[in-house]
Structure formats: C-alpha cells, structure tokens
Design goal:
Porin, 2 helices, twelve-stranded antiparallel β-barrel, 276 residues, single chain, two-stranded antiparallel ribbon, mainly beta
Length: 276
C-alpha cells in the first residue's frame, strides 16, 4: 500500500466534506449517528484476518459558523461513543470468554477554514484543526482492546480546491496530520464530486490515509484508532432537503484496502440545519 499512497488522504473528514458556501453570520449544524462493526481486520501486513467482532457507534454534533465571508470556524464533537467486543465460545471445549464494552465521549476536532481565493478557476480554502483526545482506550496491543479515541493530541494543516459547475461541484483536499504520543505523522487526501438539486444533494467521495511510519507507538489488533493506520475508502452521501433549512442525510463508506484498521463499512444517518 505504501507504494500506492506515496504517489498520491481521509483529510480531516470535516475539511473534505462538501458544504455549500456560508456567508457572514450564517451557520450549519449537523447531528448524526455513525456505526461500524466487523469480524475482519486489516493487519500490519495489509492482510484481512478474522477477529472477535468489534463494533463502534458514535453520536456526533458538528457546527460550521461564518465569522466573515472568508473565515469559518468548525467543531465536531462525538458526544457519545460506544466500543464493544463480542463474547467468544469455543465449539470443542465449550469454554467462553465474555464480551466487553467501553462508553465515553470521543476525540473532538476544532478548527478554522479560510477562503483564500474565490475568483480563480478553483476556490482555494486553507484550514487548520486541532484533534482533542477526549476519548478513552485500554492498553493497546491485544485483540480485546477497547477504544473510543486514540488518546493523542494532533494538529491538521491543509488546503482544499473547490469548483462549481451550475448544479455540480468537484473538490480535492490534501493535509498533513502532526500526531503526538509517539504516533506516526500522516499524509491525507480526498476527492469529491456531487450534484446539487432542489430536493437532493448527492456526493461521491474517495478518501485515503498514508502513515509516514516515523514513530513507534504500538499498533492495535482491532478497531480504528491505531498507530500506522492506512486506508483507501470510497463512499457516498445523500442529503434530502425537507425544507430550505432542514434536511436528512445518509452515508456509507467502505474500506477497499487498509492497514491496522477494521475491514468494515461505516454507515451514517442524521439531520442537518442551515441558518438563514
């Protein structure tokens, strides 16, 4: 995978995901639920192996607010995250190992987006963000680890190019993720294309993460909060507009190649509210 990634991110998800332009004093709120579960895991050699079924459910609140026409502040807060591992029973001996769960808030992100250039062929947006380690985790390295965050404070910096074509749009984003607590730094990139209709917005995307393998924190044996995590993930999102301000949104993303991450689809459903 490294040979694939080195020539070409998930950028911070909030930085890639498309939102229609906000003007000064306007805002966009989103409240959504995300869920993933799998008994398959991409290990350090990028091989898909069987594990005890691991699931992660996250209830998230995010907000974008335009301080000016150029400066937009953003925050995403996972207000409740539940990580579970199923119990295990051996067929021959009948011996059982109990399952377990961990509940907490999750790692949050706060940042700012700056519209640098709006009259060039592509709108250019720079962004910086901080990852706040509010989640919890067990000792890393076992196949029974439970995590609701990676426990490290990180900083994103990147740029996005965006272009509108009447009812269609395209954008691309790249970023650098500086990680602490001996987690390797990352290069991330993402692309989106979409349709903007009167009642529906439809977005197709491709996100990826490349680890620089420059630190030595232990890797997980399950879950999605590992050091040296890599992935290639296509996805789709559909927004249905109930009114001009209120909509419901559903999404699905899959992992087609990965390292140290669950081999599982991620599903999302939520409500979106835009200001005036």
């Amino acid at each position: 995978m490294r040979s694939l990634f080195i020539t070409a991110f998930t950028a911070a998800v909030w930085a890639v995901a498309y939102t229609q332009p906000l003007t000064k004093g306007n805002y966009q709120l989103r409240f959504n639920q995300q869920y993933t579960a799998s008994n398959s895991f991409f290990d350090s050699d990028e091989e898909s192996i069987k594990i005890r079924t691991n699931s992660l459910s996250s209830t998230n609140f995010s907000v974008d607010y335009a301080l000016t026409n150029r400066f937009i502040i953003h925050a995403t807060i996972p207000v409740f995250v539940r990580s579970t591992i199923n119990g295990l029973q051996y067929n021959q001996t009948g011996k059982t190992e109990p399952g377990s769960s961990l509940n907490s808030v999750g790692d949050a992100e706060v940042g700012v987006k700056v519209n640098l250039f709006q009259r060039l062929p592509f709108q250019t947006i720079a962004f910086v963000a901080l990852g706040l380690p509010f989640g919890k985790k067990d000792k890393v390295g076992l196949d029974t680890d439970l995590q609701t965050g990676d426990g490290e404070f990180n900083q994103f910096i990147g740029v996005k190019l965006q272009k509108y074509f009447s009812s269609f749009f395209v954008n691309g984003c790249t970023s650098f993720n500086n990680r602490s607590k001996d987690f390797s730094n990352e290069i991330r990139y993402g692309f989106e294309v979409g349709y903007l209709g009167n009642k529906f917005n439809v977005t197709a995307r491709l996100n990826a993460i490349e680890s620089l393998f420059d630190k030595t924190a232990p890797v997980s044996q399950n879950g999605i909060f590992s050091n040296h995590r890599e992935l290639v993930s296509p996805g789709i999102e559909v927004l249905y507009k109930i009114t001009k301000r209120v909509g419901v949104v559903g999404s699905s993303d899959v992992v087609i190649a990965g390292r140290n991450t669950l081999n599982a689809p991620l599903f999302g459903f939520g409500v979106q509210l835009r200001g005036r």
